[in-house]
Amino acid sequence: MIGYVPGHSPLHRAHPYTTLALAGALLLGAFALTRPIEVWTLVAAAAVFAASGGALRASARPALLLSLPIWALLFVLHGLLGADPRMVVGPLSLSVAGVGRALVLGGRVTAIVLGFLTALATVSPHRLVEAMTAGGVPFGRTFLLASTLTILPRMRERAAQILEAQQCRGLRIGGSVVARLRALGPLALPLVLGALAEVDEQVLALDARGAGGAARRTALDPPADSASQRMLRGSLLLVVVAAYAWKFWRMRG
Amino acid sequence: MTLRDLVLVRLGVAVNLVIGQIVAALLLPVYLDSVGTILVASLVGPRAAIVAGLTSQVLNAVLSGNFSWLPFAIVQVVIALYAAAAARLGLFRRLATAVPAGVGMGFVAASCSAPISYFLFGGVTAGGVTVVTTVLRALGAPLGVAVAAASYSTDLLDKAIACALVSLLLRSLPRTLAARFPALAR
Amino acid sequence: MTALVMLEGVTFTYPGAVQPALADVSLALSAGEVLVATGESGAGCSTLLLVATGFAPRVVGGRLRGNRRIAAERCGIVFARPWTQLTGLCSSVRDEIAFGPASRGLPGDVVLAAAERAMAELHIAHLAEREPSQLSGGELQRVVVAAALALDPEVLALDDPAAELDPEAADTLYDALPAIAAAGTAIVIATPDLERASRVATRAVVLEGGRIVATGRPAEVLGGTEAARIARAAGCPPPVPLDVPALLRRVQR
Q1: What is the per-residue pLDDT across A22-42, written as a single tens digit (0 to 9) for each?
Q2: Which of A73, A151, A156, A193 to mutate to test the interface with B (most CBs of B within 10 A)?
Q3: CATH architecture for residues C1-32+43-73+193-253
């Protein structure tokens, strides 16, 4: 559902920075636009973005599922409980301004989520790491982003094992709030202390292989970049800045 | 940052992302997604803690698919700085000082997140807090007040428990392991 | 033959510890030899590895006294748990093994050649495209050893490398060691697994309380160890054949 899906679309072939720049522009642009028509044009742009990555179906469903609770809460908080004047739609009395606000806020979230799910679906983690290495991104940043995701499954597994083991030893995870709070210690402590005890070994293993050394790490398979992609990324930045300039000019005027 | 700092930051981020699993199993009404950040602040220092907080925010978005919460990254920075200061003052050494420190942290965190939630998201963010906001609004409170009240009440509880847990963790470190963290001795 | 590592009267104490982990240890390590360090848990074998390769006190902290001279330019180290030694950055075995040379900024073709060589030495070329997370413990440990070898270390330290492996995987790992030593690498292994270690060792030391209490050829030294005593008392064949009839029986099996 969420995650990389191999493919051959233009987005798959593009440099990872380009795809991420497009998603980032959607994110920043969403907060710059304040009228429903503008925001929903952006949503349409996000859909085009997703389609160009062959990921429209892959990202539309999770995007919808993620946005649904937000739409529901927006509807209640702003539509039903919003300020007057009101309009009557069927059996419900909705706030006019509230509905407008809900459309903007909901549209924002939808555009952003659609944009980034597309990026997730079309940027392979491996290519991103290679792009970052080739681009001279310091080892630390690449390491934190990529390596953490790799160790998560094992840590989750360990957390589940600790839960089982402690329950076998008689730990009760139900009952009053205080009792459940007390159970937090026996479940969290072994997990964190166990992880801390491994730190020395991990540091030694990384150090022995020259990680974080002074030399710039060789990228073995750097993704191809092009002048036109670089220009596209640059112009996206200009578009976003222009959008915010327009927003603030409108707010003053 | 040294290699050791990086590995510790990674540990902190992993803890931030995984502890929600434990919290869910216990059906507690909190997130505790800053425990790792606070731990790194105590073991290493403010800069490492900020990196841990920001990385957690990004990876959380990557894992959940919801990137609209990225503007809340500034709150992670605030939490990291507060935690480092509290650790420096030795507030995590005892539960009696850790819990009030957590309450203070919750207050500061909510003071940052409530405006972001209100102005950028109209008060609608993650499930739990927004439900509280909606209930308060339905009871007649203005939106701004509802958002603030929901943010403060959830954050105060969340950070108080988080700081208590970190205090417990630090006190449970075996002596030889604790000796490897000069920041603890201060 | 000049020694790659020379320790004279070395005492090492971990940070925060009261007792030294190594006390007055003198040892020389030469190219091509396979040294086994054994003793009870906590006797200092792992520490000896860290001190001999220069990782202590540089990476783990602590205080070192005495004379230490490490003529080796590059040292590799492998620990018991394969998982904690992965970088987490690499999506293929080849990339993981190539990480060391790549971190030193060597050109791409040199890096890949080093990786191919290391994979060949450990007979894991067939795993090159696989994802590390999908490998068994035994395969992963061989990847880790290959990753250490890719940097062409002059000294390779192995801390109980087969501890988490099943017997077959452990045998495969140990069987690969003589060829590595024959190529000129000095290997030092800390392990309680006397049976396997004695098959590959050219020299053995026994540690007790941080001090070397016995040193010499494996047959002489390891026969006097606790494991051998227990084996004799139980009427089992000792881990190392101690006389010609025992050796003949072992060979005829």
Answers
A1: 999 999 999 999 888 999 999
A2: A73
A3: 3-Layer(aba) Sandwich (3.40)
